[in-house]
Design goal:
41% helix, nine-stranded mixed β-sheet, disordered N terminus, 290 residues, alpha/beta
């Protein structure tokens, strides 16, 4: 009887031990399971997925309706150019566009930016879609104001933009002293902009009838040296020439009016002005004539 009780006790202990092991393994399996993602994680993740799916569906819809739609294939490409240098062939080549391409297959802003980068002589480019099958391109070229360097092939316009000079442009005034390192698409420095201001003012006013500019040397910091077509040498300077002054045009105009008056006065006396220094005040203007 005692041994039976002992065996029963041992059996109960065995069953309790086995049950404990089973419970331990079940608890371990439960602990091994990954906890669910908190809302703070899966809600934004779901939003990202939804946005991505929406963007994909939008792109597919756009492709079907626009840039893969044969209805919008370009049948007519109109190219209008204001200027003698750029040709319609240049436009087609640089933009890589023509009849047979889709009207919506390219971003018009990108086409415009790429063309201006490849053709610095172009001042502006305008592109317009006329549905369903026409693209209109309007190009305006830059107008040369002066040449850069005596023997160079670069020109500069009123805005100071540098571009290649077309054939037959040797009659423009020459700006020297700042052309080193310049390439098409670059902008000139302030010293060259001072010379541009002088040339432009002569072109736009009656001052140009008296002041016929051959070259402008801007290599000196405190003044620029102007040579007229008849051989006169003029020094022109004002304070803070290295800065883009708000009253720059007024300063330049004042100097040029003084120069025109001196040229006219020498001519009336039957003499010829050779040298004139306009770097001082109005009360002191050194000059030489014969």
């Amino acid at each position: 009887m005692w041994f039976k009780q002992k065996d029963g006790a041992d059996s109960d202990k065995g069953r309790r031990g086995d049950s404990s092991k089973i419970n331990t393994r079940r608890d371990q399996r439960l602990n091994d399971k990954k906890p669910p993602l908190p809302k703070i994680v899966w809600i934004p993740l779901a939003g990202v997925i939804a946005i991505g799916m929406g963007a994909l569906l939008t792109w597919k819809l756009g492709a079907v309706l626009f840039w893969e739609n044969p209805k919008y294939t370009i049948q007519k490409l109109e190219i209008h150019i204001e200027g003698p240098t750029i040709s319609p062939a240049h436009v087609r080549e640089y933009m890589r566009i023509g009849e047979g391409t889709n009207l919506f297959s390219s971003n018009l802003y990108s086409l415009r930016s790429d063309f201006l980068r490849k053709a610095p002589i172009a001042k502006s480019v305008k592109l317009q879609r006329h549905l369903p099958d026409t693209l209109i391109i309007e190009v305006v070229e830059r107008i040369p104001l002066a040449r850069l360097g005596r023997w160079g092939t670069l020109a500069v316009d009123r805005e100071g933009c540098v571009f290649n000079l077309r054939a037959g442009g040797r009659d423009y005034p020459v700006i020297t002293g700042s052309e080193a390192g310049l390439k098409p698409g670059a902008r000139v420095d302030q010293s060259a902009m001072n010379a541009i201001e002088i040339i432009d003012l002569c072109n736009r006013s009656k001052l140009g009838e008296q002041i016929k500019i051959a070259t402008l040397d801007v290599s000196t910091k405190d003044y620029l040296e102007m040579h007229l077509t008849a051989g006169e040498k003029i020094k022109v300077g004002w304070e803070n020439m290295d800065q883009n002054l708000p009253d720059l045009r007024q300063k330049v105009e004042h100097k040029l009016v003084t120069l025109a008056s001196a040229l006219r006065a020498s001519e009336e006396r039957g003499r010829r002005l050779v040298n004139l220094d306009l770097t001082f005040s109005d009360q002191y203007i050194p000059a030489q004539e014969y």
